[in-house]
């Protein structure tokens, strides 16, 4: 294995001569990526090794996220909506009020935070602590989970698109496929096993409630999205963003839209998550809850990103409701009940598998996979 300090941190370069006056210095990127992967220690391993300059594989390109930093955040009237889900049962007036707010936020921003959602504070805190415990245990123990084989129910690695994306994100992730076929408890990391199972139970219940509210907000029967199996699959992604010595050169997570039916995001207090609203990056303060939904452009799938920071580590847990790579042939597309002569379908139908395959092959630069499913406009 290569020694990281000698070979990776910017020193192992291939110098190519050129006709121009200055020789072009080209980094042997493929070698660097492989060596980084083979450490099986992720971004946290670099920080533990005490690096003060980040390797070049993490540099974002000029055309990427940071150019948009000129328009960053803080604009009061563009803050992310916060919806209180308290008092919903048995009060139809209150429920309508909440459904209206969900509709408005999903149409305008494609993103909202939720409070009084029923997941106890202590469960959320323990979940964040459990994830931190996973990353902060001995590298040798973590290595047992390190793989890029996503047929496994539990996968730990860094940057699932490491070899194909233009720049590496400053983040490591533990992926747990919790539904519909949950892993055996002994397959989950011991240090966070119990809380992962408890959090999964709670977030699944919340997901079902959110699908009900979203169905109602779309003018559908409350069980509609549940009945077409939107809540069937659940992937819990536990992210760890170590403190970064040069945060201006890289990203915690490059801008993207999520590719599932709905994401519920739990983040700690560190900050860094931003959503794109009216062409401005808006900070999402520390509160749980984030939403993405495909609905023929009625509801938005918002672009978001995470900045790298000198502070940290930052921990976040994304619960992705999706059937993912499951071999199901079920087709998803614009909801038929919402279509009419005046609202014809804008997208063609697809299986979630094909949608993901398209995303992986074409959209690693942050562009939307949805664009590849657009139907030609009919006049
Ligand atoms: O860590 C975060 O706050 C966001 C994570 C995210 O966007 C994702 O997992 O898709
Ligand atoms: Fe995301």
Any overview of this molecule?
The protein is of the alpha+beta class. It has a single domain (35-67, 77-329), classed as Jelly Rolls (Sandwich). The chain has helices at 4-7, 29-38, 42-48, 92-108, 121-136, 139-143, 193-217, 224-227, 352-362, and strands spanning 13-16, 24-27, 82-84, 113-115, 154-158, 172-179, 234-241, 251-256, 262-267, 273-277, 280-283, 304-307, 314-321. The strands form four sheets. It has a five-stranded antiparallel sheet. A four-stranded antiparallel sheet has the order 8-12-10-11, with no helix packed on it. It has a two-stranded antiparallel ribbon with strand order 1-2. Strand 3 (82-84), helix 4 and strand 4 (113-115) form a beta-alpha-beta unit. Helix 4 (92-108) crosses helix 7 (193-217) and helix 5 (121-136) crosses helix 7. It starts with a helix and ends in a 17-residue tail after the last helix. The relative contact order is 0.14. Fe (ii) ion is lined by residues 256, 258, 304. Residues 256, 258, 304 line the site of fe (ii) ion. Belongs to the iron/ascorbate-dependent oxidoreductase family. GO terms for molecular function: dioxygenase activity; metal ion binding. Its cofactor is Fe cation. Residues 230-324 form the Fe2OG dioxygenase domain. Pfam families: 2OG-FeII_Oxy, DIOX_N.
